[in-house]
Amino acid sequence: MRYWVNELNVVRIKDIKTLFELKNFVRYPNGAWAAKPGAGNQDDRVMSLIWSLIILENEVTERYFEIAELDDNKRPLRLKSMDYGIKYFINPTSMYNNEKNPEEGNPMPMLFDIGDSPELTGINEMEEQGWKLMG
Questions:
Q1: Who contacts 76 (Cβ-Cβ below 8 Å, separation ≥6)?
Q2: What is the pLDDT of residues 90-126, one digit of tens each?
Q3: Which end of the chain has the smaller Cβ count within 10 Å, N or C?
Q4: Distance CA 85, CA 77 (A)
Q5: pTM of the model
Q6: Which domain holds residue 50?
Q7: Considering Cα of 58, then 59, then 60, then 64, what sign does the dihedral take?
Q8: Domain assignment present for 13
């Protein structure tokens, strides 16, 4: 963690509670790291930061990502972009993604009455399955 926080400066901590935990995060004589003994001292935020940075360890990173560039210390500096094609299925500017009011949910579009044939509508089949049209 110190490498990425202190040497590379790639982690910016803006949460005062995390900074307080870092201040009270000490090494014990047995070699373990934890919160300094005392009332109210915790290490949950620091430990979650450490666990989130473990993905940057070479063995873990090479297993799940393709490394585009290493730094001077042979650590992952840049990963290749991984596009799973999600942008072709989800359009963040679509009217069906209601990001401004999450209480209303994200309704999926449904098309009814495609063409003139009643077999293509699908409404009868949905009503047989228990769906009801909202009016």
A1: 56, 58, 61, 65, 67, 69, 70
A2: 655 555 555 555 555 555 555 555 556 656 566 777 7
A3: C
A4: 24
A5: 0.48
A6: 2-79
A7: positive
A8: yes
Shortest CA distance to 78 belongs to which of 90, 61, 91?
61
**57 in any annotated domain:** yes
pLDDT single digits (tens) 31-41: 999 999 887 89
Chain-centroid distance of CA 53 in Å reads 14
SS3 of 45-76: HHHHHHHHHHHHCHHHHHHHCCEEEECCCCCE
- Cα dist from 105 to 64, 90, 100, 102, 110, whole Å: 32, 15, 10, 5, 15
Mean pLDDT, the chain, rounded, equals: 77
Tokens of 34: 């934890």
Count up the domains in the chain and report the number. Answer: 1
